[in-house]
Every structure is written in structure tokens, then in C-alpha cells.
Design goal:
The chain is of the alpha/beta class. It is 27% helix and 24% strand. It has 2 domains: 144 residues, Medium-chain alcohol dehydrogenases, catalytic domain (Quinone Oxidoreductase, Chain A, domain 1, Alpha-Beta Complex); 130 residues, Rossmann fold. It has 8 helices and 16 strands. Strand 13, helix 6 and strand 14 form a beta-alpha-beta unit. Helix 2 packs across helix 3 and helix 2 packs across helix 7.
Length: 315
């Protein structure tokens, strides 16, 4: 079968011929139905300082995975062929980092890492929920510790920012969005944002309890520390820049908590799927073909996309 594989930094993905996976004890083969394209894959391809795990090379990328169990390994009793599943991302076995991922028609996954996809959730949304959705939920609800009635700021209104905005509204938060892309302001308002600005500092008068910086562009994090209320929390899941300089005066004098958010939890991923199953959470996606994955990552690298790219496999 064909698989899109990483070989080296500053080199394009290569479409290689690879062996079909075979189920081994404790694992299953997933017939991939959809896989999301994530900016972290762009980081792996373009930035020699990007965090990497494992030593497998070449390696098939793709970690936002949704599909069906196609084959069950020895000792696996909780899953059967035909089950709709996604892969929970753990550093011990992360697809596209520690082992081959989902930029291929079939892949191996540990049975313990599987998450059941509820009926009514599309393959595209299930794929997005595996990382973008779960990470948004975790950053906002888990690390951010936001509660109903809290004023919450969202920096960046790309795929994660859009998902987080909708989750925040559904959770009963007052949501405020900062994005320089004014073409997205009507969508933010439609999703339930109370106010949209170009710079989070313009929201300093709102006394935001939590600000989640999905952009992570360096200056955005510094601005969040300046804008959040006294005793507030700034959560950073975005990694557009790998360094930033913040005002220690703002951090200390306002007693701001600055926390990084990495990955998610199974509870976060299930929480996202529950919201998707009701139809209340419906991320904006653009579907592309398997053959377009490399070109899709190039588009993602250039920026300016208004939807989350998802590659679909067959029916």
C-alpha cells in the first residue's frame, strides 16, 4: 500500500510503497476512513528545532485518525472488527512520532489507545476531534479551569480557535475572540462570541478570567499576560513561535498563572465527541483526497485557511 512518509527536515513528504500492517498481540489494524492534517506535521517538516519523538525513519505521519477496526490481534477482547474508533494520542505510542500514523489506508494501534466514536459523528469530525478538538477542550476546560459564567478569551480563530469558541459557548462561558483576520469576525459572532478584536489587549477592560492562546506567535502570549485580569490564567497550546518575551511586571504584579497545554486526556476527547454527537459542535472542515495530503500540508504551511483540512479514504 502507499503511505505518505517523513524522511528528513526540509524535505517534502514522500509517497512510499510500504507493507500492509498485520495485527499483533494487544493491537488492532485500523482501516483509516479520515485523517486530519495538523500544523505540527508542518513543524516536523520545516523546523529542525521542532520537538521529535522516537527514531523510526522514514515514518508515516498523521495522528488525527478515524476509522474502523479491520483486524484484531491476540488478547484483544474489548474491540471487534467493524468498531468505529479513533486513536488517543499518548507519547508512548503516538502515531506519526513513535510509530507509523494515518497518512496511509491502514495502520496499527494499541488496543488501549482506542476511543469509540459515537454514532452520528462523521469521519471528518471524528478525525478533527482526535487532536484539534480534544486539545482545545483540554486547554480550555482542563488546564484553563474555566467555569460556567467565566469570561474567556480565545486568541487565534483557526481550526482550534473555532472549536474552542464553540465549546466555550456550549459550556456556558462568555467568549471573546482576538484574531487579525477580520473576514472571520462574522463567523466568530455567529458561533456565539460576545466581542471580536484584532489584538487581545483591546479586551483588557473585560476582566477576562482565562485566555487561551491558540496562536502562540510569541507576541500573542505576551499580550495575553498583559490583558488577563488580576489572578487570571493564560494557557498556551499554540506553537507558531518557539520562544516569547513576556512582562514579568504583569505576570508578578497581577499574580497571573501562565500554563502550557500539551495534548489532551481521554475525558477531553470523549467530551468533544459527545458534543459532536448532539450536532451542537460541528467544526468547519475541508475534505481532500489521500493523494492531496502533501499539497494540503503545503497549503497549511502558507496559512490563511478558514477550515480544518481532512483527507478522506474511500466511503
Amino acid at each position: 500500500m502507499k503511505a505518505w512518509q517523513f524522511t528528513a527536515v526540509h524535505e517534502p513528504l514522500v509517497l512510499n510503497e510500504v507493507a500492509e500492517p498485520v495485527a499483533v498481540p494487544g493491537e488492532v489494524v485500523i482501516d483509516v476512513k479520515a485523517v486530519g492534517l495538523c500544523h505540527s506535521d508542518v513543524g516536523m517538516l520545516e523546523d529542525e528545532n521542532w520537538p521529535r519523538h522516537g527514531s523510526k525513519n522514514p515514518i508515516t505521519l498523521g495522528h488525527e485518525i478515524a476509522g474502523v477496526v479491520g483486524e484484531v490481534g491476540e488478547g484483544v477482547t474489548e474491540w471487534k472488527t467493524g468498531d468505529r474508533v479513533s486513536v488517543f494520542l499518548t507519547f508512548a505510542s503516538m502515531p506519526g512520532h513513535e510509530r507509523d500514523g494515518g497518512y496511509a489506508p491502514r495502520m496499527l494501534a494499541r488496543a488501549e489507545d482506542l476511543i469509540r466514536i459515537p454514532e452520528g459523528v462523521s469521519w471528518e469530525h471524528a478525525a478533527v476531534g482526535a487532536d484539534a478538538g480534544a486539545c482545545s477542550y483540554h486547554a480550555l476546560v482542563g488546564v484553563g479551569e474555566a467555569r460556567p459564567g467565566d469570561k474567556v478569551g480565545i486568541i487565534g480563530f483557526g481550526g482550534l480557535g473555532q472549536i474552542a469558541t464553540r465549546i466555550a459557548v456550549l459550556k456556558g462561558y462568555e467568549v471573546y475572540v482576538a484574531t487579525r483576520n477580520q473576514s472571520l469576525w462574522p463567523l466568530a459572532m455567529e458561533m456565539g462570541a460576545r466581542r471580536i478584536v484584532g489584538d487581545i489587549r483591546e479586551l483588557a477592560d473585560e476582566e477576562l478570567a482565562v485566555i487561551v492562546d491558540f496562536a502562540g506567535a510569541g507576541t500573542t502570549t505576551a499580550a495575553a499576560v498583559d490583558a488577563v485580569r488580576r489572578g487570571g490564567r493564560v494557557v498556551l497550546p499554540g506553537m507558531a513561535a518557539l520562544e516569547t518575551t513576556i512582562s514579568t511586571k504583569s505576570l508578578i504584579m497581577k499574580q497571573v498563572t501562565l500554563a502550557g497545554a500539551l495534548g489532551a486526556s481521554k475525558e477531553a476527547q470523549r467530551g468533544v465527541y459527545d458534543l459532536m454527537a448532539t450536532g451542537d459542535l460541528s467544526p468547519v472542515t475541508e475534505t481532500i483526497a489521500f493523494e492531496e495530503i502533501a499539497a494540503g500540508l503545503a497549503r497549511l504551511s502558507k496559512g490563511g485557511l478558514d477550515a480544518r483540512l481532512v483527507a478522506r479514504f474511500g466511503d
